[in-house]
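sry for the spam today, last one i promise. struct tokens for design, 391 residues
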């Protein structure tokens, strides 16, 4: 499931990676190119909760391989379309495929992990790795063969569909009688909407901070630390690489201390780290970027499982919101940060990011650790050795 997640999320990052090639080969304006990115990312994020609601009513494990192929097909066709409207259409289809994948995959991965926080962190890491690998995959294909070679970008989708199908077969095998079709769909327990809404608000705060730093950290480090383009690229690498480590570390910490305390500590760390990014000059800025990356990524997979357990009757909806809708807020806020930077300075524009994880801390403070749903804990699967007893 983790490897399949990586294959799917390549297509989340691939559209943005195609922008320079669309500008150079088709003479798209920057506004037209940004429209292509918006067509894929915004539609995907908004539609995900709808697919989550559908999977709450009907188990649809077949969505995993099908949506993977759809996501890949849209990007694969983007380089051979004959018009701007057709390009928008195929990348929008890719976004819908990505949206259809995540709610159902989060449910199936939770079943496969039998509630293990560490296993779910590996599932989330797969997505992060796929997103980070997208520019490399696009460059390897398009830089050598041009946009006409874009159909080759369907290869990860084919591999991902095969991996998803293999995972589903394993869950249906003898000894896994509950299978992905029925277990984990929710229906037991009571939905805790106040806690879920508080968690969602905190995730929105996290999303704005992460997208803001991702968009502007390269430029900011070049201003504050010097070193030119290499310095900015290094800072962005630290932000993403620290995230890969933080995602896995978060699962291990949650297994020992519980999810809610780890999420709360992470947001508190993020307040201090982002303040350091904005205020600390010189090489020490890189350390602050690394700490900010850890604070932002440690709770990443925990957000998903907490959302699922706060809404045990609506697991798909919870997955769609925590993985999709809340994340889109960061993308919507990014132009506002840019406009403020144009009107003032980049340091001034990034300063409000310090307050957002603090607001997240306040939202998270009343939360309690939810219980794991019975459908997960009793799913016939290898015993879970790292879930805390309190869960």
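last one done:
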């Amino acid at each position: 499931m983790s490897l399949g997640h990586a294959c799917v999320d390549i297509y989340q990052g691939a559209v943005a990676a195609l922008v320079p090639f669309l500008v150079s080969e088709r003479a798209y304006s920057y506004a037209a190119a940004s429209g292509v990115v918006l067509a894929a990312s915004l539609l995907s994020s908004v539609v995900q909760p709808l697919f989550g609601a559908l999977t709450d009513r009907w188990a649809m494990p077949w969505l995993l391989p099908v949506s993977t192929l759809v996501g890949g097909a849209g990007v694969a066709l983007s380089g051979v379309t004959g018009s701007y409207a057709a390009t928008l259409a195929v990348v929008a289809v890719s976004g819908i495929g990505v949206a259809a994948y995540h709610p159902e995959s989060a449910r199936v991965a939770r079943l496969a992990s039998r509630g293990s926080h560490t296993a779910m962190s590996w599932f989330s890491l797969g997505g992060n790795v796929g997103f980070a690998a997208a520019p490399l995959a696009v460059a390897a294909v398009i830089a050598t063969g041009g946009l006409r070679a874009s159909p080759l970008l369907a290869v990860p989708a084919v591999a991902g569909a095969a991996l998803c199908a293999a995972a589903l077969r394993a869950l249906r095998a003898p000894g896994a009688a509950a299978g992905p079709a029925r277990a984990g769909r929710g229906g037991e327990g009571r939905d805790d909407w106040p806690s879920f809404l508080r968690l969602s608000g905190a995730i929105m705060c996290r999303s704005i901070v992460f997208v803001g730093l991702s968009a502007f950290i390269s430029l900011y480090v070049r201003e504050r630390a010097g070193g030119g383009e290499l310095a900015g690229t290094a800072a962005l690498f630290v932000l993403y690489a620290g995230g890969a480590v933080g995602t896995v570390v978060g699962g291990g910490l949650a297994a020992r201390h519980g999810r809610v305390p780890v999420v709360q500590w992470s947001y508190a760390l993020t307040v201090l780290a982002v303040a350091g990014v904005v205020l600390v000059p010189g090489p020490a800025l890189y350390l602050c970027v690394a700490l900010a990356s850890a604070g932002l990524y440690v709770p990443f997979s925990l957000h998903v499982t907490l959302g699922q357990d706060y809404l045990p009757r609506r697991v798909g909806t919870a997955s769609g919101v925590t993985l999709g809708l809340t994340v889109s807020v960061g993308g919507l806020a990014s132009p506002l940060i840019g406009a403020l930077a144009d009107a003032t300075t980049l340091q001034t524009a990034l300063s409000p990011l310090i307050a957002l994880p603090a607001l997240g801390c306040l939202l998270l403070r009343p939360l309690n650790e939810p219980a794991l749903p019975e459908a997960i804990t009793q799913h016939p699967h290898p015993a879970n050795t790292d879930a805390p007893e309190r869960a």
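The chain has a mean pLDDT of 84. ok im logging off now
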